[in-house]
Amino acid sequence: MKPTLLILAAGLGSRYGGVKQMDKIGPSGESIIDYSVFDAIRAGFGKVVFVLNKNIIDDFKDIYEERLSGKIETEFILQELHNIPSGIEFNAARVKPWGTAHAVLVAKNVINEPFAVINADDFYGKDAFKVLSEYLQSLANDSADYSMVGYKLKNTLSDNGSVSRGVCSSENGFLTDVVERTNIYKKENKVVFEENDTPLEIPEDSVVSMNFWGFSPKFFSQMENDFKKFIVENAENLKAEFYIPLVANNLITRNEARVKVLSSDAEWFGITYKEDKEETIKKVSQLVENGFYPSSLWL
Fold first, then answer.
1. pLDDT in tens, 20-29
2. What is the DSSP string of 144-173?
């Protein structure tokens, strides 16, 4: 069975200042999402599921239902605050959805096969999709041997501001821990992150998670149990977010899953700040010139 691609596109890009998921960065007006779906199709994926918010779902349907018709199956679903397991109550003052793991969980009714998870605004590269697709195509639906594609920290930074990254530790090729580091930036030819307002150096070759994960459908039930506990434990924290690395860490700690760290020769880049867009356009243009992509993806 062909794997599914789950694209997390519900965020509005508060630091970016707009709906960056639909920004045109390709020579024929393609967005980063277009390149991700194109790479997924040629890597053997059979369906793409978009997780969206109510302000942009109609625009996405208008664009991608027609654009991808006959090329790959599509699903469009909403991530909303009330999309939680039945019988669970949450603080009525909460207005923001619950984070990336919650975005995955809302797709449980439309995914019945091994699947990959990506961010809408990250360019992961052809080879990364190929590597993960091959892994997922050999994964049983009830397997708890999950995966992630790791990238070197130095290749994931922005010249226009700080970033947050999940810094990974591994043993014998399997993930042992993901630690979320915030305010990572370059300083005097070094890479640092801030902890209690103190800059601390971090190796530039550290492997980081860019939210490119591979799971079986079993992940949904495992995640749902942790999500119920998360809502109860964070009832008074109105901004607490249920992240994928948090769930992965919990499963690893309890020996309920393994996460294989896959390596790829692909170059990651993305748009965190408005100033990143120009550089992203240049990089995509170079890939087109070098023959990695056609000048128009969907002709």
1. 567 899 999 9
2. -EEEEEEEEGGGS--TTS-EEEEEEEEETT
Residues 6+ apart with CB under 8 A from 61: 76
**Is 261 within 8 Å of 116 (Cβ atoms)?**
no
| CATH label of the domain that carries residue 258 | 3.90.550.10
Domain that holds residue 98: 4-289
How many CB atoms within 10 Å of residue 24?
13
255, two tokens: 């020996």
Question: For residue range 264-289, what is the model confidence (pLDDT) as tens digits?
Answer: 777 788 887 888 889 999 999 999 99
pTM of the model: 0.91
Asked if the structure places residue 298 within a domain, the reply is no
In the chain, how many domains are there?
A: 1
Q: Which two tokens stand for residue 124?
A: 């992961």
Q: Which residues contact 187 (CB under 8 A, 6 or more apart)?
A: 199
Flag whether 175 is in a domain.
yes
The DSSP-derived string for 81-124 is TT-S-TT----TT--S---HHHHHHTTTTT--S-EEEEETTEE-
Dmax over CA atoms of the chain, in Å, equals: 54
Q: Spell out a b/e string for 82-108, using b for 16 or more CB atoms within 10 Å of the CB, else e.
A: eebeeeeeeeeebeebbbbbbbbbbbe
Whole-angstrom Cα distance, residue 152 to residue 33? 22
CB atoms within 10 A of CB 196: 5
In a domain, 103, yes or no: yes
